[in-house]
Amino acid sequence: MNELFDVSGKVIVVTGATGILAGGAAQYLQKNGAKVVYLGRNQERVDKAITEAEAISPDCMGVTCDVLDEQGLEAGYSKVVDKFGRVDALINGAGGNMPGATIGPDKEIFDLDLKDYSKVMDLNLKGTVVPTLVFGKAFKDQGTGCVINFSSMSSTQALTRVLGYSNAKAAIDNFTRWMATEMALKYGDKVRVNAVAPGFFISKQNKALLTNEDGTFTKRGQQVINKTPFKRFGKQEEVYGAIHYLLSDASSFVTGTVMAVDGGFSSFCGV
Q1: Coil, helix or strand for 43?
Q2: How do strand 60-64 and strand 11-15 relate by DSSP bridges?
Q3: Residue 117 among the catalytic residues
Q4: 35-69 burial code (b ≥16 CB/10 A, e <16)
Q5: What is the pLDDT of residues 140-174, one digit of tens each?
Q6: For 215-257, how does the pLDDT look when each residue is reduced to its tens digit (9 = 90+)?
Q7: Residues 263, 230: contact at Cβ < 8 Å?
Q8: What is the pLDDT of residue 198?
């Protein structure tokens, strides 16, 4: 049974690997025997990630590149193949938001900054599509491979404030299903494309939004808890488990799926 979940020896490229969630997943997979490529756009942060990764095992490498830079990604792909000989999986972990693409409590939709909106759409959507097209060529040639995209709770329901991010993540859900179909029909049942949709997790970026200095929940934090049947925020490792499953042979008949890891948030209407 354990062989079903074995990811040891798999060459896994992780974009956004200098971030909290994707970077944590990269380290988790490396600890489970995978050969991990840490891809990020900031050289200093990539160097830091690799220093930490090398303390886990020598089976890692860093690639500094913007996920919107097709030529840079092509060069990165060549480096990965030169070092490891193949690519078995791609995790599209790069993404983010910008203040101008959000609608704060003191603003209205007509205050939306369309330039920031476009940047958020590009980073999250094109930043998933472009790496998939570059590294996905390996899966076409090999006849085997796996892509995992990052979706969101905001992709299927109206989550206030985060308009640009929500629109991009909804498009990623569609891209996941479309690409899963395309790759399977053209290249067979060993090429799979899925996504994980994390629920709410406390991180440096959102801590002030969800919790007060005394540890109690803000109004928005309490709204999230009220709609989460588990009545708590998630833990990062709970997302890692879902990623592990989708990368492994245990999910060999799973493609085109957006897996919620959310404590029931997406299932509960709140009543």
Answers
A1: helix
A2: unpaired
A3: no
A4: bbbbbbbeeebbebbbeebeeeeebbbbbbbbbbe
A5: 999 999 999 999 998 888 878 889 999 999 999 99
A6: 899 999 999 999 999 999 999 999 999 999 999 999 999 999 9
A7: yes
A8: 94
180 in Cβ contact with 193 (< 8 Å): yes
The two beta strands, 89-92 and 35-40, are unpaired
Residue with token string 């790759």: 183
What is the rounded distance in angstroms from the CA atom of residue 76 to the CA atom of residue 67? 11
CA distances from 15 to 38, 132, 140, 178, 209 (A): 7, 10, 20, 21, 26
Q: What pTM was computed for the model?
A: 0.94
- The residue annotated as part of the active site, out of 77, 165, 187, 240, is 165
Residues contacting residue 27 through CB under 8 Å, at least 6 positions apart: 36, 52, 53, 56
> Model confidence at 206, in pLDDT bands (50, 70, 90)?
confident
What is the residue whose two structure tokens read 């993540």? 169
DSSP-based three-state secondary structure for 19: coil
Q: How far apart are CA 209 and CA 163, in angstroms?
A: 16
What residue ranges define each of the domains in the chain, with the CATH number in brackets? 2-199+236-261 (3.40.50.720), 204-233 (no CATH)
pLDDT tens digits for range 130-144: 999 999 999 999 999
pLDDT of residue 100: 83
Buried b (16+ CB within 10 A) or exposed e, 203-234: eeeeeeebbeeeeeeeebbeebbebbeeeebb
In whole angstroms, what is the distance from residue 236 CA to residue 63 CA?
Answer: 24
Q: Enter the tokens of residue 133.
A: 């097209």
